[in-house]
Structure formats: C-alpha cells, structure tokens
Design brief:
This protein is an all-alpha fold. Helix content is 74%, strand content 0%.
Length: 121
C-alpha cells in the first residue's frame, strides 16, 4: 500500500521519495490519510527538512484531516533537527489554539529544539 511505502521511506530517511509517493497518490486519485502524512512529516524531519514538513502539516488542514499530536510531534521534531526553535515553539502555540493534546514527546522535541541553540531558559 501507499502508506506502507511512505512508512518505509520514513524509516530509511528518504524524504524525497516520501514526497514523491504523496505526489503519485494525488496524480492517481488515491486519498491520503493521517498515517500517510504522519510518516511523510517524520521522513522530512529525519532528512532535516523542516519546511516541507510544515507544508505537509498545512496540507492536512487544507484536506480537512485532523492534525493529531503525532503529526505535530513529527513537525516539532523536524524543526528541532534544523535548529528552527522559534518555529518549534510556534507549533506548540498552534497546538494550544487548535486544542491538540501535547504529550511528553511534544515537550521533549521542543526542549531539544531550544537546547540545540542555547534557548532553553
């Protein structure tokens, strides 16, 4: 399945291939779901590509898909991997605005993003 393929790309850190699969899904009319997006956002994070990760998070909203804690955690982690600590913190605010639950992973990823640039205080 497409979800399995995107998940395999995520595990291998092949973010470009994950995005290509999402494009292929759109071209063939196959609907993307939260699992698809979560894996693709995570793949972008592993590839230190925070901007595509945030675009995917936005695409979820445009597609009327729930942006879950898992999706946000992957996006916060992607920002942290690129030392985009302000964006990571902005995502925490967005989660609060959207009433999305935060968990230990959320806070850990945000702290890591800030810690990497000395902004943890």
């Amino acid at each position: 399945t497409y979800n399995a393929a995107v998940s395999a790309c995520e595990k291998a850190g092949e973010w470009q291939w994950a995005l290509q699969i999402l494009d292929d899904m759109a071209d063939t009319g196959v609907a993307k779901n939260g699992i698809t997006y979560n894996a693709a956002i995570s793949a972008c994070g592993k590839g230190a590509e925070w901007q595509p990760a945030l675009q995917l998070l936005n695409d979820m909203a445009v597609s009327h898909l729930e942006r879950s804690t898992i999706a946000y955690n992957a996006a916060v982690s992607a920002c942290g991997s690129c030392q985009e600590w302000l964006m990571a913190l902005q995502l925490l605010l967005d989660m609060a605005d959207g009433r999305v639950d935060k968990d230990t992973i959320t806070y850990s990823a945000a702290v890591s993003a800030c810690e990497g640039v000395g902004e943890w205080q």
